[in-house]
Amino acid sequence: MGKRIGMRALSILLAVMLVSVVVPAVSAWTENDPICIEDQAKVQGLFEPVDEDIRVIAAENLVVSDRASSVRCSELLSEIMEKYDQNLEDIISILEKATDVQPDEKDRTVLKEVIVGEHFRRVCDEILMEQRDLREEDAVIVQPQILGVADCQEDMDKMLAGTDRWDTFILAQCSPDVYGGIGLDGANLPYLVNGGNNLYEVGVWPGSPTTYQLRYYDEDHPSPVTDIEYDAFRLLYYGTLEDRALFDVTGSQIYFRYCWNDGYTYAWLYGIHGYQYRPKTSVIYTSNIWNHDIDTYNSNPNIGQLVMSVPYIQQ
């Protein structure tokens, strides 16, 4: 037991040393920072054909519900990255100048996959909402009620004792996603994040199915270099750092739509964007991966959780 703890502490120390070597002293971008209109126009123009091809894939309603379909989706997105590699390289060059951060070859490859993969999820959500005519002004807005921080499963069980799981959703968000920090996730992968990515509200469209949209202030990539560059891309292309995740509720089932994490952990470098169903009465872990891929199974039992509740709203 002592040896395992010692190795874990050594791993964290090595992660800290590695980050201190490769990360320049740069602040993360915020939505209050001024945007260069010229850079914004260039990024949007370069990404336009990428967006068009991603929309073709998304329109096929590819359901990523197992490893085979996940691999197929990754292959399709990889083809897009290869086809538009120069566009993505030109975008990263703009981001480098805007942030004064120079990612190495590995960071550039990761950033390309993050940009393309996360845009795929955004487009899938957008298409679904258009198909169902789920409009922002029609959503019921709910603020999560904070129940406390659970450092372990025993804390969680005590906190939730007596809670009616049928009429209430329990939402648990990894503590570093909210408060920031450095450490190792459930698979011993290192992360260093700013935090401030609070799940601040939930949009609900009652119906059959009832659709829930989790809304976060931001998302932090576990690699600070990639995070700074990805923040800059999102502000230049989307005009916001906010992140969202959709799931449906029908009867006794929850359907995660393009936001299931498939067992991967908080510091996994890429989103999975999977589709899966689970029992409705379960706790939902809302940041199993940093990009807010989620599940009713906790992929990071070694990390504390901010525990919240929202009501189950029916038609």
From TrEMBL:
Know the name of this protein? Uncharacterized protein
Taxonomic classification, please?
Archaea, Methanobacteriati, Methanobacteriota, Stenosarchaea group, Methanomicrobia
Top-level division of the source organism's lineage: Archaea
